[in-house]
Write a structure and sequence with these properties.
The structure holds two protein chains of two kinds.
Chain A: E1 3-14, E2 19-24, H1 27-32, E3 38-42, E4 53-56, E5 59-62, E6 68-76, H2 80-86, E7 93-100, E8 112-118, H3 125-134, E9 139-145, H4 154-159, E10 163-168, E11 175-176, H5 180-188, E12 196-201, H6 204-216, E13 221-224, E14 240-244, E15 250-254, E16 261-263
Parallel strand pairs in A: 8-9, 8-12, 9-10, 10-11, 12-13
Antiparallel strand pairs in A: 1-2, 1-7, 2-6, 3-4, 3-7, 5-6, 13-16, 14-15
Helix pairs in contact in A: 5-6
Chain B: E1 5-7, E2 10-12, E3 16-18, E4 40-42, E5 59-62, E6 65-68, H1 77-90, E7 95-99, H2 104-116, E8 122-126, H3 137-140, H4 143-154, E9 161-164, H5 172-181, E10 187-189, E11 193-196, E12 198-199, E13 204-205, E14 211-215, H6 220-233, E15 238-240, H7 247-256, E16 260-263, H8 265-269, H9 273-287
Parallel strand pairs in B: 3-4, 3-16, 4-7, 7-8, 8-9, 10-15, 15-16
Antiparallel strand pairs in B: 1-2, 5-6, 6-14, 11-14, 12-13
Helix pairs in contact in B: 2-4, 4-5, 5-6, 6-7, 7-9
Classes of the chains: A alpha/beta, B alpha/beta.
């Protein structure tokens, strides 16, 4: 059951001119959150911006005894709400509702886990990588960004023994180009008999390409979709995704409660 | 303090109602709030059959408001009765169902299905959705259409009948009168205002349906005015809505003439708003020595003010 708290901003760490990580004092939400779940955050108290915005739970912060004390969100400044989040100051309070949505289903060994992240789509993978590490799953993160300065938290993932396959659009780090290129090569060279689960989060085109490649190589793939959301609770029907129906047609499902993690092969991709 | 309000034969325990399209089928909120603590909840609009609605993006935020064109995605009246109504009844919710139709016959048939079900408290007739191609607002933008739909449904139901009016007309009060003359027990208003938001960089509309309905605090003063106009025109109860975001807003609508109010967009911002609204209304009643909330309805003081203080 989701919890709503007026969470203190504990810290705001700017990662670049657009990206930042805000820590919110919401221990009950942090304790309950599973990898892939999200929170609805309202930055600012007034009527403009009016609505909350959805953010993946990025990290769970814990005290010396392992108890959850806070959660963080990874934000990219693209509009009024994310501008307020970029400018967040410790001591401010942001309304924070969560945890919401259906989480990733982590695999167990001997299956490997391959995470595919584009840009701010890195957000759900910090907690997933931890869960996979705890289960002893061998993990790889395929991570694409515009440039080297926008590849974040690499040491975090290395500390969890996650293999990194990095791409940048300008070639300033890793391979030049899109993240699906090394993903497809890796799938092509992997024995069909060895199990691997794909997890993807990022721009719609990247998700669609990942879904196509997963189907081509007959690999299961869980995608975390991002839609414009009104409420996060299933009330407004704004965040729908077309999913294949048994009769060959499609059905609009609410990504806030049926997702945000959905089976890639059931989504009707329009790109 | 008596918070109860009467809508036709229906008595609501308080004047706060969750607005259609802003509260799913109600069951989505059942674990978060006590559904029985609300005066009522209005379901998403229901046709006879399932509808998938418009593609995303379906909403875009605007200054102090939002634009939506969901396209009345819904599971249809029969599935609602089978799949949602039992839980709503078990939770003690007062269930008002929003009835849609593309034809007059469909309004009648949906109303008949819902009237035969156990646990429906009232019907809200959606003759005002701006986002579908056929039906709905076509009836709600014509006085004859409004009269005909309400009259036809009136013949097949004894449930309180509440046509929901569109603000996208010149004189909303004349539509309230048409509804009253056709046998409506109450009217609810306003539905959303037709509006449009463009991305000037790409020149593309920000929602897939190109145009949509504007809601939220931005529209509240217009909605209050429309409730006030209807109050001058009809005797039947009025359920007011349009941008209510706190208790003062709800009280403003009631002073203007609303017997009860609906809250929609603000529920997205704060799903726990209901107890705050109730507390705020109770506080107001204490401060103003009001024993019955019904005594507040339609009490706008428009007497000419003593002009001494502005003379010279």
């Amino acid at each position: 059951m989701p919890i709503d708290v007026a969470a203190h901003v504990i810290a705001n760490r700017r990662l670049s001119s657009d990206y930042n990580v805000v820590a919110l004092e919401a221990p009950a939400i942090a304790a309950a959150a599973a990898p892939g779940q999200f929170v609805m955050v309202k930055a600012g108290a007034g009527l403009d911006p009016l609505l909350r915005r959805p953010f993946s739970v990025f990290e769970i912060m814990r005290d010396a005894h392992g108890a959850a004390t806070a959660l963080t969100i990874l934000s990219k400044r693209i509009g009024p709400s994310t501008a307020l989040i970029y400018d967040a100051r410790p001591g401010q309070r942001f309304d924070c509702l969560g945890p919401l949505g259906r989480p990733f289903t982590p695999v167990d060994p001997p299956a490997d886990a391959w995470m595919v992240a584009g840009g701010v789509g890195l957000a759900p993978f910090a907690t997933l990588a931890q869960a996979l590490h705890t289960r002893g799953v061998t993990s790889t993160l395929f991570y694409g960004a515009r440039c080297a300065a926008e590849l974040f938290y690499l040491d975090f993932f290395r500390a969890l023994r996650v293999d990194l396959a990095l791409t940048t659009e300008d070639g300033s780090a890793g391979e030049r180009g899109r993240v699906v290129a090394p993903l497809e090569r890796a799938l092509a060279s992997r024995a069909a008999s060895s199990a691997v689960m794909l997890y993807a989060c990022g721009p719609e085109g990247m998700l669609a390409a990942t879904a196509r490649i997963a189907m081509k190589y007959s690999r299961p793939c869980q995608v975390s979709v991002e839609r414009i959301m009104g409420c996060g609770l299933g009330g407004c029907y704004s965040c729908v995704v077309p999913m294949r129906a048994a009769d060959g047609g499609f059905h609009h499902v609410r990504s806030c409660i049926a997702g945000p993690v959905l089976a890639a092969d059931r989504i009707v991709w329009d790109t | 303090m008596d918070l109860s309000v009467r809508i036709g034969s229906l008595i609501l325990k308080n004047p706060l109602i969750a607005a259609s399209g802003c509260f799913g089928y109600g069951v989505e909120y059942a674990d978060l709030i006590d559904l029985a603590s609300l005066g009522g909840i209005v379901s998403k609009g229901l046709f006879l059959k399932e509808r998938e609605g418009h593609p995303a993006p379906r909403i875009v935020e605007t200054p102090a408001g939002m634009l939506n064109a969901i396209g009345l995605q819904g599971i249809g009246a029969r599935r609602f009765v089978d799949e949602k109504l039992p839980e709503l009844r078990a939770r003690g919710a007062t269930v008002i169902v929003n009835v849609c139709g593309t034809t007059l016959d469909e309004y009648v048939e949906v109303s008949r299905v819902l009237s035969e079900a156990e646990g429906v408290a009232a019907l809200e007739l959606n003759i005002s959705c701006p986002n579908i191609k056929e039906g709905g607002i076509q009836f709600g933008c014509s006085l004859n259409g409004t009269f005909d739909v309400v009259s036809a449904v009136r013949k097949v139901t004894t449930l309180p009948l509440i046509p929901k009016l569109t603000p996208n007309v010149t004189d909303v009060a004349s539509f309230a009168r048409a509804a009253e003359e056709a046998g409506a027990d109450a009217v609810s208003l306003v539905n959303t205002f037709l509006a449009m938001v463009l991305d000037v960089e790409t020149r593309r509309p920000r929602i897939s349906n190109v145009v949509g309905g504007l809601s939220g605090p931005a529209i509240r003063p217009i909605a209050v005015r429309m409730v006030y106009e209807c109050r001058q025109t009809v005797k039947i109860p009025i359920i007011g809505m349009g941008g209510i975001a706190d208790a003062r807003d709800a009280i403003e609508f009631m002073i203007a003439g609303a017997d009860a109010v609906q809250v929609g967009t603000a529920n997205f911002v704060d799903p726990l708003i209901w107890s705050k609204l109730l507390d705020g209304i109770g506080d107001y009643m204490r401060r103003h020595s009001l024993a019955r909330i019904a005594d507040l309805v339609g009490t706008v003081d428009t007497r000419e003010k003593d002009k001494e203080w502005i003379s010279s």
